[in-house]
Amino acid sequence: MTVPLAPRAFITGCAGFVLTPEEEDFLRQSAPWGLILFRRNVDTPAQVAALVAAFRAVVGREDAPVLIDQEGGRVQRLGPPHWPKYPPAEIFARRAEAGDNVGAADAARLGARLMADDLAALGINVDCVPCADLRLPEGHGIIGDRAYGSTPAQVAHLARAAAEGLMEGGVLPVLKHIPGHGRARADSHESLPVVETSREELEATDFEPFRLLADLPLGMTAHVVYAAIDPDLPATTSKRVIDEVIRGHIGFDGALMSDDLSMGALAGSLAVRAEAAFAAGCDLALHCNGRLDEMAEVASRSPLLAGEAARRCVEALARLHPAGQIAQSEARARFSDMIAAS
User: Fold this and answer.
1) What residue ranges define each of the domains in the chain, with the CATH number in brackets?
2) Which of 31, 180, 235, 263 lies deepest, with the highest CB count within 10 Å?
3) pLDDT category, 4, cuts 50, 70, 90?
């Protein structure tokens, strides 16, 4: 079947190290905007590069986005023995909190730059970093050491450094989890968090790092209810939150993807979830678990990219530039020294 001229507005996963014939047929017919990889898809560098190339060949787009969550710490899909282990964001936060804001930002930028080299060598061109959620004492540990700190200014400063490091290495960042997961008391992978904090306080705290980073090209929503704004729906499926907060107060005009639609925070079938996310204003639906039946259900409710969603996606990819030169061994030694000093 001929691939549609425009991709569909969803990002999908796959089950294993290679695409099965059934997955190839699905990808060819549904033409997703992008593919996201997880540990189940990772074995060796040659295998990952071949999987990435196979996806792009099937969908017929050389620039088709391939995403991964490579934050460092607990969230790192590529790791030893083939790839370095990177520290969590908290390492940079501690250095900033000790008074070395410049050194902390330099370390965050260099670490992300080195990650970008790892990813770009495989053909992966989007990293779901930075996490701009605040680390707050009442928040669930799902954020924890993934946060760049507890104050909006510090989080935005270090998150921007990481985003810049990725882009210097030819990889696009994804700002997450808009408009803020740090205050949530539950893990949205398992259940729906409800935040009761006032809108005024949210705008001064949780939402503020995202406002300071609103120029980044890609963003991911939070499956969190903000009761002061919309007591019934999480940000992912709330038109009020997306219009008034994400596009309005925060001013984010990048391509906005949902967090994973298969997570436990959301209710209803995958078709219902996808329809709700698009109706609320998401540009892209994200589905991660690699189950072909669920992938097909999301695809069936995902429109061809058009209008403002298409504009945002095109503009995001236009910000991909070839990586500049970096002396790898020297840069990695310098990064190790920076981490040791943190």
Assistant:
1) 8-340 (3.20.20.300)
2) 180
3) very low
